[in-house]
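Example for tutorial group B:
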C-alpha cells in the first residue's frame, strides 16, 4: 500500500486493503517526543490498541492517551468508549491516560469542564497531537453527528449535547485544527459510501467527517471485507 499525507491542495487518497493497515510506521516517529494520541470507540478501537501494544515500553511512556469522544454513561459502563479500550488491552501501566468520564457521580457539565482542563494541559505538555478516527455510515466523526449544534462551535475545544442515541461529549471543530496528523479507519460495506464521498467537497453540517481536512495531515484507510 502507498501512503499519502494530505495537504489542502491535494485530493483525498483512500488507501484500500483486505488486511488491517500497518500504522506502526505512521506512529513510531512521533513517539520519540511527548505525544497526545486521541482514540475512538467502534471498530477503530481494536486497531489502535494493537498498534500501541507493538510499541516499546519507552515509546508507550511518551504517549498520553485520551478520546475523540465519549458517551455520557457511568464510569466503567460497557457502553463507554474508554472501557472498550481497557477491555481490548490498552497498556494502562505505561501510557499516560486522560479518560473523559469521572469515577464519581457527577453531571455532564462538570465532566465536560474537567476533560477540557485535562486536554488543555495535555496540549501544552505534548509536542504532537495525533488522532485515530472511525466514521459512521452517516459520515459522523468523533461524537459529531450530522447537524449537531457543535459543528458550528468556534471557541471551545470540547462540547456536549443530546444526540439521537446518547448524550455525547466530544472534541469540536476547533480541536481538529490542532491535530498534527490523523488517521481515518473504516471497514464494512455500510461504511464504503461514507469513505468514498470523503473525496468530494461537501458541507460539514451534513457530512461532519469533512472536518478531517482541517487537520494538518491525514490518511484514510478502508479495509475491504471488514465486518463493521
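The residue assignment follows.
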Amino acid at each position: 500500500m502507498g501512503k499519502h499525507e494530505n495537504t489542502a491542495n491535494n485530493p483525498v487518497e483512500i488507501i484500500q486493503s483486505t488486511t488491517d493497515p500497518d500504522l506502526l510506521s505512521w506512529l513510531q516517529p512521533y513517539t520519540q517526543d511527548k505525544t497526545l494520541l486521541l482514540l475512538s470507540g467502534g471498530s477503530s478501537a481494536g486497531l489502535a490498541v494493537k498498534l500501541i501494544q507493538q510499541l516499546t515500553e519507552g515509546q508507550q511512556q511518551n504517549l498520553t492517551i485520551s478520546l475523540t469522544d465519549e458517551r455520557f454513561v457511568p464510569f466503567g459502563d460497557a457502553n463507554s468508549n474508554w472501557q472498550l479500550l481497557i477491555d481490548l488491552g490498552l497498556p494502562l501501566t505505561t501510557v499516560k491516560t486522560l479518560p473523559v468520564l469521572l469515577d464519581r457521580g457527577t453531571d455532564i457539565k462538570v465532566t465536560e469542564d474537567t476533560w477540557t482542563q485535562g486536554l488543555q494541559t495535555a496540549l501544552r505538555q505534548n509536542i504532537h497531537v495525533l488522532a485515530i478516527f472511525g466514521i459512521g455510515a452517516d459520515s459522523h466523526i468523533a461524537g459529531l453527528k450530522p447537524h449537531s449544534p457543535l459543528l458550528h462551535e468556534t471557541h471551545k475545544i470540547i462540547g456536549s449535547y443530546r444526540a439521537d442515541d446518547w448524550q455525547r461529549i466530544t472534541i469540536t471543530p476547533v480541536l481538529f485544527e490542532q491535530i498534527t496528523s490523523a488517521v481515518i479507519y473504516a471497514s464494512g460495506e455500510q461504511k464504503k459510501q461514507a469513505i468514498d464521498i470523503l473525496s468530494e467537497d461537501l458541507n460539514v453540517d451534513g457530512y461532519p467527517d469533512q472536518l478531517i481536512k482541517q487537520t494538518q495531515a491525514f490518511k484514510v484507510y478502508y479495509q475491504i471485507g471488514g465486518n463493521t
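The longest strand covers residues 181-187. Compare this with the pattern of hydrophobic and polar residues in the output above.
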